[in-house]
Write a structure and sequence with these properties.
By secondary structure, this protein is mainly α. It is built from 32 helices and no strands. It folds into three domains: 188 residues, Serine Threonine Protein Phosphatase 5, Tetratricopeptide repeat; 107 residues, no CATH class; 140 residues, no CATH class. The termini are far apart.
Length: 614
């Protein structure tokens, strides 16, 4: 209590000039209220022994309580003089108070709340995520009763991209679902693991939305790190300020201190921010470019618009901080750093809204191949390029061809335009780009040679109904027939031995990988009988039914109908840069597990993608 009196006194020191400048208080009562009420005529007071208990006045008037005859024994006792002197000695001086910033003063005077959200508005951690089951999310309780060590191993074990575009899409949907944490795992830690994996997959927008679904008061250091990574990946610098200003973390690295200064500037403390950045610059030798970029960004919040010259000399590496800050302030990244950007920067640039379409399209192909960009978003990006007609001839040529693929008068011209987009490209992104244009082509024997690629392109966007229209055009044993055999929903008949034999004989892929993937996909979907599985396992050197530690776990998860766990394990089993890393046995167990738990559409698309890309 003594401490509270003294802090109040410190507050009065800061505001003394204001108090002295005030005039005497003025009455705000209307005329007639300034005179006291007439005193009632005196009446004999009852003796103490017979005094009745006070009761409400029948006229609604005021009840007068009798004064106590003796002082209360519970009155507060003044603190000892030694304690007062000790507390006074611990208070900062007037000079120290003057030098304190707003946060330090708020903490000293007890004005900074630990939680800045009213209790009624605080969100629960029972289920954290952004997609409910009504919006396509997975069941929220799927992981609640699973061993925490198993779930953690599945999430942490996914270190990089997946070989399957559709596997990536399914994993993103799983991680973004409103999920309850496994027993024994802290919900905030569970959210941090999911957000970190989304960041590793290049899904920074989804990671940012996920961390924003948790109140700042519940943040852990791991969740703070995941949040900052998502804000850097989306170049949303100011978006990180609620985390930076409220988390209470004890960090002292250059980027953290620079980010705190930026947030102070945008909170109205421009002078303090620039002073902090100047002090940070004076003690920084290797990361000066980071402070320069922070000064430029913080300067945009002040009235002076202080100019800062960005010097890239001596900078030989690009970091997420430099990438995000440079784009946020509109500072061009030198060619020496931007020409050889890694996958992280290419994928991130594909979705940054402040970049031009020409800057975004460079990484859009990779982002579309991996499942970060949808086919529709990819087409929209090239539509903007077409409208702008930039100086990049290759990009302009693709945008012109894409327009012809949609609006050319003759079907042959549209197919020719689609084929021109594919020609000379080894990327899967072009197949994603032409998915909807391919779906507009009327099936015809004249395009039988292109049918397989047209169908494969449609399936990148999940257009299985459109692909099914080509069923009477594709010949038995062709790639188009193979794709439809695994992609169509609810086929009338199982695949026969003769049809499989035709495809295996015509397969010219390395090691007959397409035929192996087809057998694995059909077996996982239950579209060939046990006899054909045994026959083609011997013929192609497959061993689909043998067990590994991974196949045992995913099979058990499917046996108890756990969609969320099966989806996580499927992502764990599909890691890699290319389909060369995927075995037919692994594909069989993944497709079978997905199909068994009701994720039939995803199982079919993954199986078709494996046949098409193997």
């Amino acid at each position: 209590m003594t401490r509270g009196w003294l802090l109040a006194g410190a507050g009065l020191v800061l505001t003394s000039s204001v108090v002295l400048a005030q005039r005497a208080p003025e009455s705000i009562l209307p005329p007639g209220f300034e005179q006291p009420a007439p005193t009632p005529s005196p009446t004999p007071a009852p003796s103490p022994a017979s005094a009745p208990a006070p009761s409400p006045s029948p006229s609604g008037g005021e009840v007068v309580q009798p004064l106590p005859s003796t002082p209360s024994s519970s009155a507060p006792t003044p603190p000892p003089r030694s304690q007062v002197e000790e507390d006074l000695a611990s208070l900062p001086s007037a000079r120290e108070l003057e030098l304190m910033n707003t946060d330090e003063l708020d903490e000293l005077l007890g004005l900074k709340p630990k939680v800045d959200i009213p209790p009624a508005a605080q969100r629960t951690l029972d289920r954290v995520g952004i997609i409910g089951t009504a919006e396509g999310g997975l069941p929220g309780g799927g992981l609640a009763r699973q061993p925490a060590a198993l779930v953690q191993a599945a999430i942490v074990g996914i270190e990089g991209p997946l070989v399957s575009r559709w596997g990536h899409i399914l994993l993103r949907r799983t991680l973004a679902s409103r999920l309850a944490a496994p027993q024994g795992l802290d919900p905030a830690a569970f959210a941090a693991m999911r957000a970190n994996l989304l960041n590793r997959l290049g899904e920074h927008d989804a990671a940012r939305a996920l961390v924003q679904s948790v109140d700042n008061a519940d943040y852990t250091p791991a969740l703070v790190d995941a949040a900052l990574a998502s804000y850097m990946g989306t170049a949303d610098i100011v978006g990180a300020c609620p985390v930076v200003r409220r988390d209470g973390m004890d960090r002292d690295d250059t980027q953290w201190n620079a980010l705190r200064a930026i947030c102070n500037a945008y909170a109205g403390e421009e002078t303090r921010a620039q002073n902090d950045l100047r002090r940070l610059l004076s003690r920084t030798s290797e990361d000066r470019i980071d402070v320069f970029l922070a000064q430029r960004f913080a300067g945009a919040a002040g009235r002076g618009r202080r100019a800062v010259t960005i010097e890239w000399d001596g900078v030989d590496a690009l970091t997420p901080w430099r990438f995000a800050l440079a784009h946020a302030v509109g500072e061009p990244i030198p060619d020496g750093l931007s020409e050889n950007m890694g996958d992280y920067y290419l994928q991130s640039s594909a979705t940054l809204p402040m970049l031009t379409p020409l800057q975004r399209v460079r990484g859009a192909n990779l982002a579309a191949s991996r499942g970060i960009l949808s086919s529709q978003a990819f087409v929209d990006l090239y539509s903007q390029l077409y409208a702008q007609q930039t100086g990049e001839e290759d990009r302009n040529a693709t945008s012109l061809r894409l327009r012809d693929a949609y609006v050319a008068a003759a079907p042959s011209e549209r197919v020719a335009a689609i084929r021109a987009i594919w020609d000379g490209s080894e990327s899967y992104g072009e197949q994603v780009l032409t998915a909807y244009a391919a779906a507009r082509v009327t099936p015809s024997e004249a395009f039988a040679d292109d049918a397989g690629t047209l169908i494969g392109s449609m399936l990148t966007a999940g257009l299985d109904r459109n692909a099914l229209r080509w069923q009477n055009v594709v010949a038995e044993g062709t790639i188009g027939w193979a794709l439809l055999s695994v992609a169509v929903p609810n086929p009338a008949n199982a695949v026969s031995d003769g049809e499989l034999d035709s495809f295996a004989d015509a397969d010219m892929s390395s090691g007959q990988r397409k035929a192996k993937m087809l057998v694995a996909g059909l077996a996982g979907l239950g579209r060939i009988d046990d006899g054909n599985i045994a026959e083609y396992s011997d013929r192609l050197g497959l061993n689909l039914t043998s067990q590994t530690r991974f196949t045992n776990v995913i099979d058990r998860a499917a046996a108890v109908n756990n969609k969320a766990l099966v989806a996580l394990l499927a992502g764990l089993g599909m890691q890699g840069e290319s389909w060369d890393r995927m075995t037919a046995r692994q594909l069989y167990h993944i497709v079978a597990a997905l199909n068994r738990v009701g994720l039939n559409a995803e199982a079919r698309m993954i199986a078709a993608e494996a046949v098409f890309r193997a």
